[in-house]
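User: I'm designing a mutation panel for Nitrous oxide reductase maturation transmembrane protein NosY and want to avoid disrupting the core. Could you give me a predicted structure to guide residue selection? Please restate the sequence first so the numbering is unambiguous.

Assistant: Good idea. Sequence first, for numbering, then the predicted structure tokens:
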Amino acid sequence: MKLLWILALKELRDGLRNRWIAAAIILLGTLALALSLLGAAPTGSVRVSDLDITVISLASLSVYLIPLIALMLSFDALVGEFERGTMMLLLTYPVSRWQVIMGKFLGHVLILFIAIFAGYGGAFLIMIIFAGGGTEGWQAYGMMMFSSLILGAVFIALGYLVSVLVKERATAAGTAIGLWLVFVVLYDLLLFGALLLDKEQIIGQQLFSALMLISPTDSYRIFNLSMFEGVSQAAGIAGIASEAGMSGTLLMSVMLLWVMVPLIATLLFFQRREL
């Protein structure tokens, strides 16, 4: 366990040296503050707090930003070390390959943790002074931060899988961008395009829900927009997730599965890769 933390702290120091943490904190914090100041709670019979509106806006934009930040952190985590020759040097020490992967993973998740909780959390503390709302609003915001960390961990793991499979850093960068486009942009476009073209209604509600569920980005979005009453009412999707059988536990389990599967695959490929 000590070796894992040594490797994790090395990645954290590298993140500090490369200004990754500062840049991510500034980006996420500025985004959260801007959305909270620009957003306004709707009027009418449905009463929700400004914080609920901020959760909707942040969840909708974080689904684009968090995966991109995570992939930029992780795409060259392994192939970059191979190109520089530092991986061979690292493995001359009494450290196993699985410890290298898990140490790097912990370090990159820690970088993302600091960025999310300093950026979004700092904005949250500032919003407390100005925004009203009940406890449910704070819970939704807190779960949005936590689920953003899990979403980031998903794409860190996917970035590692890319990094262990390719031979060049440039190839890893291109593949990472392709992954981001597929998961964040193209998947939903293709899914809704197929739904629009489905004149014979082959895609029923259950199949559509399943196709939404298997995407980590859609699971993240549905989790944050439907699990809390104020947020779901403001987003206009109250009751939709429960009707489709998508509980919070199920949605979070899907995201955790997306962390574990690529990470295990990375470990297996890394064990077989020659130095």
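For picking mutation sites, this is relevant: The chain has one domain: 2-272. Residues 2-272 form one domain.
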